[in-house]
Amino acid sequence: MPATRKKRKVRRPVAWGNWLWVAFFACTAVGLAASPLTAIRVVRVSGAAAADRGRLTTLLQSLDGKAAAQVNPRGIETLAMAGPSVDNADFSRNIFGRGRLEVRRRMPVAIVANRRGTLLDGTGQMFPGIPPEGMPRVFLSANTLNLQATLSAAWESGRIAELCGDLRQLPLRNVTLDVAADGLMKLRLADGAVVVLGSTHQMKEKLTKLTSLIQQRPGLLDTVAEVNLTLPERPTYTPRSNP
């Protein structure tokens, strides 16, 4: 049989010109990014609370004179989030000397009644802040406050925060949520009436029942000392004693 002739591979010329242009632009981009000409001169800050602006201004002043490539955005974000009232931060910059820091603040759902200047956010975390008007108050037992201080998850912080958020939807004003050391809860109203809620079990049903009772009997809370909603399908009442 005749020997099979191997096909020679055709060598194509390397397009050195194209590669050189790619290398040129890459080097130019890197050089510009590291050049003092790209130093950040203006940073816009959005979403920050007034109490945080001084701290953030000091943080951003540390960028003065640094080229864009020398600035670590993740590092700036971490330092920005060191403030207890900051929930999240996003920092961006470009080679034209401009940067932007977007801050998302913690949104309070309740005032911690027995810790001055302390708020509770929607995740159950406490943070310092100026108490807004018309917000529910939550009174936590000393044991619960200690658990929070040690970052323990032994108390139902998330559920309590959710409950505080739901309380703002009720037709009630000046409400204080008492949370006992055993986790049992009750609402104390401005006129002295108490609504016993018990544990967080069936909490949606309990609040729905309370709203229904108020709508059906608008003067109910003026005539009772206590409404017990531990079993929302079977509420009980304790009338106010005559003066």
Structural summary, described in words:
With 243 residues, this protein is of the alpha/beta class. It is built from seven helices and twelve strands. It has helices at residues 16-34, 50-61, 73-80, 142-149, 157-167, 203-216, 220-223, and strands at residues 42-46, 86-93, 98-105, 108-112, 118-121, 126-128, 137-140, 176-179, 185-188, 194-198, 224-228, 236-239. The strands form two sheets. A nine-stranded mixed sheet has the order 6-5-4-7-8-9-10-11-12. The chain has a three-stranded mixed sheet with strand order 1-3-2. Strand 5 (118-121) and strand 6 form a beta hairpin. The radius of gyration is 31 Å and the shape is elongated. Mean pLDDT is 81; it is low at 19-25 and 149-154.
